[in-house]
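The instructor's notes for this session suggest beginning with a concrete chain rather than abstract definitions. Hand out the sequence below and ask the class to guess, before any prediction is shown, which regions might be ordered.
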Amino acid sequence: MASYPIQNAPAQLDMIYFWQNGDRYGGLAKSCRYVVRITPSKLMQAASGTTNILPDLTYLCEATEFPGRGLNTVDLRYYGPNFKLPIQTVYEDLSMTFLCRNESRERQIFDDWMEHINPQNTFDFNYRDDYSTTISMYQMSDVGSQHTATYEWSLLDAYPLLVNAQPVTWADDGVQRLTIAFTYSKWTRPGKDQVMTTNPVIKNANVIAP
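After discussion, reveal the predicted structure:
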C-alpha cells in the first residue's frame, strides 16, 4: 500500500499517553457521580409537608441526564454552497427516574406538582412563576472529598411536563420506579455565566447537602 507523509501528524499515540491524558484534571469523570437538587416552588412552599420530602429526591434520583443545548438554523446562500446560520437556542427536555418507597410519597409530590400547574377542579393554569423552580445538577469528583462538585448547572423555570405511567406486574418483585420529564426555559452555570436570573440559584457547589 502506498504511503505519504502527513504534515504535523500526531506523534504521541501510545497507550501510555492516553492514560496520562486521562489522569489529568482529576481523572476520567464517572456517570455515577452526580447530584440532583430540586428547589421548592412558591406553591410547594405553601403546601404542607412538601418541602420535607424534596431533599429525599436527591438520594432517590436513580438516573437522569445532564442538560444539553442546541441551535436552530436556517439555510442561506449568497454564492456557492449553502451554509447554516443559527437563529435560536434550543434546550431539550430531560428525564429523571426516582426510586419509590412504600408510602408513594415520590409519586404524590409530582402528582401534587401537576395539580399546582393545572388544578383538575377548574383546569385553569396557574402562573408559571408560582409552579416553576430551579433544579441544580452537579458532576461530582471521583477523588478526594465526596462532597466536591466539579461542574454545575442550574435549570431555570423548571417544572414537570409528564409524569410517566408506572408499569406493574405480578411477575416481577423489583423496586418500583417513577420517571418524570422536566422542561425548563434555559440553564446557566453559576460562577461561570454572567447572567441575570429571577429564580433562586444555589451558590455553593462545593458542599452538597439536601
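Then share the key points. The first helix runs from residue 15 to 23. Residues 29-67+83-188 form a domain with the Pnp Oxidase; Chain A fold (CATH 2.30.110).
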